[in-house]
Amino acid sequence: MYEKNGEKYFVVDSHMHYWNAAPDNWVEGAEQYAKGWIECFHAYQSLGPPETHWSLEHFQKYSEDDLMKDVFEDGHVDVAVFQPTYLKEWYKEGFNTTERNALMGERHPGKFIYNTRFDPRDGDEGINALRANVDRFGSKGVKLYTAEWNNGSRGYKLSDPAAYRYLEAAQNMGIKNVHVHKGPTIWPLDKDAFDVSDIDHCATDFPDLNFIVEHVGLPRIEDFCFMATQEPNVYAGLSVVIGGLMHARPRFFAKVMGELLFWVGEDKMTFGSDYGIWEPKWQVEGFVDWEMPDSEELADYPRLGTAGKKKILGLNAAKLYGIEVPAECQLKEEGAPAAPEASVGVEGQPAPAGA
Amino acid sequence: MTAATTATGPGPGSPLPGPGSAAILDALSAVRDPELDEPITSLGFVASCAVTADGDAQVRLRLPTYFCAPNFAFLMVADAYDAVAALPGVRHAEVVLADHFASDAINGGVAAHAGFAASFDGEAAGELHELRADFLRKAVLAGTDLVCRPLVAAGTDPSRLAGLTLGDVPPSRALDRLRERRADLGLPAGDDALLLIDPATGEPISGEAMPIHLRRARLMRISIESNGSMCRGMLQHRYDTPGQGEEEDR
């Protein structure tokens, strides 16, 4: 919980990791990819405040104690959602598996939610593995990385028939939340790998699943916003938006927040630190302090008040995951929760521009 | 990085003056990152460029991350090759993308004039024309905001924008750029062409559809510019020397 000016913020970190990307975990023959991946992540960290930068060595492999201190003790987080990313073609034990997360999390009851994952190219075996993970770890969500390399394939689209089969199976197993992370490769490579129209199809065809698009579809915020405004079950995961822009590019942060508030709305935005890329402490504190700057070019964007910040930092994700929120952190005007379709631009009808 | 730019005059063996590395850099400044709609030079993607007196040009490109999308990377390397090879006095051009997961496939494919699908055998279904056109349409939409915003700030009533032609708009760099992108797509770009058109169909934007069109144009511009801004930050973390012709954020 974070408290500022008498306001109490319940913080759910809805997108974070516990990875091992050190050389001892690199697959022989794929070292360049394992190294390239973690160095790319490390470059993202450089967009945060200098005093929060880590050495590459520390970044490759941080400890359980580091995580508990950075996320909970210093970082104000109440509940954190582990989002696994396997990348077993590059990392021997996987980059960040459900099992690795849960083995650590079991020592800290009540602190973590264990999401799992699937890869639609894994056939029947993959469905069985998904079921085993859901049974063992009680997962209510999955994290999907569509650019993952798998046996010569460079990725997939969520609208592929195989992906639909998995989504159906996952739904039957009780999965509610699908976190989608787009990357630079899909099949075929000549298409735009970051295109989010496949999520649009899924969101329409699986109305009972929630689709949380991580890093708000970056680098395709425009496609994401336009899709999210039409799909009541699509959410904006703010990982990378806060971490990558709030400190390094405050002018763009304000504009991107303005666009998200306009198209998606504060009821459908969720905070995620993307730890270990960025520590949550400066993100939570900075976000609570943040206000839309007083500038003519930002004048017609919706404002974000204390209630909106509480929703984004924790209350929205708490609803998605059924996390109990202490009474002192709930909204005072609770009782009239926003309907899922309360975003400003539903059905392509934009709210009237203020200017 | 002055050491990498060797401006060379005509050598003893060459009767014609070579183009010089300034001309190479100038040619490269016409090559854009299709996603960010900015020259690869100002983005800092040109690590070095040089040319010998005999006209052997060598260009080394770099990107913000090891995993930047291979299709866009291929387009930039291929376009850079075409731009440099077409210069008078260049008899041989070599363009190399460094530090990228697909460097070998891209560099080999461009050197062999193989095209994208052949360079990524079995992994691509076709060439990149459609991808390029998609991103030109995005650039047209973003460019619409760049042109319209100053007009509205200067007092033009937004409701009047739909009636304006390109010729009605005072000259600016942003307007030239919008015209160029529209022309590249085969969309009307002359003085009598309407300012507000659908980048996919070329159809005029009617009064009713105008507010959302302008909203989308602004969103598009912010998306492209914030991506570019993040790319710059990542590139600066990755390399501690500026690129040839690199410029700060706009």
Mind explaining what this structure looks like?
The complex is a heterodimer of chains A (355) and B (250). Chain A is globular, with a radius of gyration of 19 Å. Mean pLDDT of chain A is 94; it is low at 335-355. In chain A, the strands form three sheets. A five-stranded parallel beta sheet of chain A has the order 6-7-8-9-10. In chain A, strands 3-4-5 form a three-stranded parallel beta sheet. A two-stranded antiparallel sheet of chain A has the order 1-2. Chain A is an alpha/beta fold and 355 residues long. In chain A, helix 5 packs parallel to helix 6 (161-172) and helix 8 (221-228) runs parallel beside helix 10 (250-263). Chain A is 36% helix and 11% strand. Chain A has a single domain, classed as TIM Barrel (Alpha-Beta Barrel), CATH 3.20.20.140. Chain B has two domains: 2-126, 2-Layer Sandwich (GMP Synthetase, Chain A, domain 3), CATH 3.30.300.130; 129-230, no CATH class. Chain B has seven helices and five strands, in the order H-E-E-E-E-H-E-H-H-H-H-H. Chain B has helices at residues 20-28, 70-85, 103-111, 116-119, 129-153, 173-184, 210-238, and strands at residues 32-33, 38-39, 46-51, 56-61, 92-97. In chain B, helix 2 links the parallel strand 4 and strand 5. The two termini of chain B are 22 Å apart. Mean pLDDT of chain B is 92; it is low at 1-15. At the A-B interface, helix 1, helix 8 and helix 10 of A face helix 5 and helix 7 of B.
Describe the secondary-structure layout.
The complex is a heterodimer of chains A (355) and B (250).
Chain A lengths: L1 E3 L2 E3 L2 E5 L14 H15 L10 H5 L3 H10 L5 E4 L15 H8 L6 E3 L8 H15 L3 E5 L15 H12 L4 E5 L15 H9 L4 E4 L7 H8 L5 E4 L3 H6 L3 H14 L5 E2 L9 H10 L16 H16 L34
Parallel strand pairs in A: 3-4, 4-5, 6-7, 7-8, 8-9, 9-10
Antiparallel strand pairs in A: 1-2
Helix pairs in contact in A: 5-6, 8-10
Chain B lengths: L19 H9 L3 E2 L4 E2 L6 E6 L4 E6 L8 H16 L6 E6 L5 H9 L4 H4 L9 H25 L19 H12 L25 H29 L12
Parallel strand pairs in B: 4-5
Antiparallel strand pairs in B: 1-2, 3-4
